[in-house]
Amino acid sequence: MVAGYFQGTYAESELAFDLVALCRRAGARFIEARAERIDPAERTVDTDGARISFDALSIDVGSDPVGTDTPGVAEHAYSVRPMTRAIELKRAVMTLEASSSICIVGGGAAGIEIALAIHRMTSNVFRGADITVLERDTTILAEYGNSVRQRATHTLRKLGIRLRTKALVTRVSHNEILLGSGEKLRSDLTAWLTGPAAPELFARSNLPKNAAGFLLVDDTLRAVDGSPIWGAGDCVTLRDFPRTPKTGVYAVREAPVLVHNLRAALGGERPRTYIPQPHFLALLNTADGKALLHWRSLASHSRIAWWLKDFIDRAFMRKYQKLIRD
Ligand SMILES: Cc1cc2nc3c(=O)[nH]c(=O)nc-3n(C[C@H](O)[C@H](O)[C@H](O)COP(=O)(O)OP(=O)(O)OC[C@H]3O[C@@H](n4cnc5c(N)ncnc54)[C@H](O)[C@@H]3O)c2cc1C
Q: How far is residue 252's CA from residue 53's CA, in Å, rounded to a whole number?
C-alpha cells in the first residue's frame, strides 16, 4: 500500500493500525524499545532500555535493506520501512523542484512500484522528474517471469523512467551516486530499495543462522538448535524450504502456526508444521489505475488486477483496524 500512499490513493491512517491497542486487546505488554542483542543461553534480550528475560522468544523483526553499509546510504538515502521512513520520503519528493533527478536503487518489486508511484506524484505537481532505476543484477524483477519483466520494462520506458542494469551503487552523496564502474550520476534524491538482508540484530546474537545471516528455523518455525526461540516473516530462513520468498504473504501464513507452536511449547503439546505454499499471487501497483498480476505462468497488466490488489490490501488492514475498534 506504500506505493498507493505516495500516489494519494491511501491516507496515512489507512496504512497503519494502533499496535499498542492491539497488544492491549491481546493481553500483551507493549514495550517501545529496540532489541539490540539476544542471548539464547541466558534467555535474555538486551534492548536500548533494559534487559528482558524470556522463557520463550518469538522474533519477527523483518529485514534490513541490502547494502546499507554502502558509504553515504545512512546519511543520504531514503527508505520506505518502517512507515515513518516512507512518510519522510514522500515529503522529500514533494519538496523537489521540476528539474530534479531521482535515483531508485533496486529493481525488485518495491523499487519498481515506488519508481512508478514517484513518477505519478511528480507528474501531478510538475512535468515529471528525471527518474532512474539502478539494478546491480542483469535484470529487474529477477524473481518474476519473463512476461512480467517485459510488461514492467515497457511501462517504465513509456513513461521515460530510465532503467540501468548491471549498475552497482558504491557511494551515495547528497546530490550524486557513484557506480562500481566509476561513473557518477546526479541524484537529488536517492531511494534505497534493495531487497531483504539479515537484520543487524542477528549479527550481534549467538543464534543459528544461514550463510546470509537469517535465523534458521525448522518446519515448526523453531530455531534449528532447539533453543526456545521461534521466528517468522522476513527475518527467518526455513531450513527445509530455503528459497521461500521474503514477502508478506508468507509472513501472514506463518502466523497461525507460530501462535499454535508457542502455546504448544509452553503447554507441553505437539507442534504443527508449516509448509510454504509453492506459488503466491503477486500484484504490483503500476500507478496508472492498473496492476501487474503474476500467478504461476500467468501474467497480465489490467484494471481488474489493480481492483483485486486494492480489495485484498484494504480488507487486510480493515481486519486489524476493526479488531481494535470492537
Ligand atoms: C514497498 C514495499 C512493498 C511491498 N509490497 C508487498 C506486497 O504487496 N505483498 C507482500 O506480500 N509483501 C510486500 N512487501 C514485503 C513485505 O512488506 C514484507 O515481506 C513483510 O512486511 C514482512 O513482514 P515481517 O513481519 O517479517 O517484517 P516487517 O513488516 O518488516 O516488520 C518488522 C517490524 O520489526 C521492527 N523491528 C526491526 N528490528 C527491530 C529491533 N531490533 N527491535 C525491535 N523492533 C524491530 C520493525 O520496525 C518492524 O515494525 C513489500 C515490501 C516493500 C518494501
A: 27
